[in-house]
Amino acid sequence: MTKRLWDAEARFYRGLRRNAMSARILSEENAAAKRLLARLDFSNIHRVLDIGTGVGNALSLIEHRAMHVSAIDASAEMLREASLQFPNVKFYCADACAMPFDDAAFELVLCVGVSEYVSDMSLLFQEIYRVLAPSGYALLTAASASPFNLLRYVLGHRLFLRRRLDGVAVQSGFDILAASRTLLQIQYLLQKS
Questions:
Q1: What CA–CA distance (Å, rounded) separates 138 from 65?
Q2: CA gap 29, 128 in Å, rounded
Q3: What is the domain-level CATH number for residue 138?
């Protein structure tokens, strides 16, 4: 999807996620992601980046942690919507493959629901690796090979399957600590080697 389409969708995106089916899927995805994040010692995690934050769905995974949180999205309208719910987060309108942050700036990166919109996965992984502190963590999701993703594929969404992301993650210098599967996603907990 283009930035213009995301900007147009921003005003009603949160409402779309509230219908019964979407809300159930989002709840399942968030519960699985929280189980992966529960493996981490948050006493050593102070700076977090949410890539492709949209209206802030992934921010709810970490909102009760005392830390400095930054979030990026290519859509200024999505960021405007997210800032209404998360006033303590620093928001940046930026490309996930060319982030405006210093090297090793974050101990944790969230990249939830983004990979299917990125044309160059190697570049995305390189950027995540670059902005992560040594031994930092990333929670990254990818579209699974679920029949439910067929409609997304027909609509032009790039679907990166688990086999492909495993290889790109390892080639980019990450260890895969854990993975889980939901109806629409495969979720990875990665650590910078």
A1: 16
A2: 21
A3: 3.40.50.150
Lowest pLDDT segment from 16-25, 143-152, 166-175:
16-25
Total domains present in the chain? 1
Per-residue confidence band for 100, with pLDDT thresholds at 50, 70 and 90: very high
Q: Give the domain extent around 107.
A: 3-192
Report the C-alpha gap between 55 and 24 in whole angstroms: 17
Distance CA 164, CA 142 (A): 10
Alpha-carbon distance 21 to 158, whole Å? 22
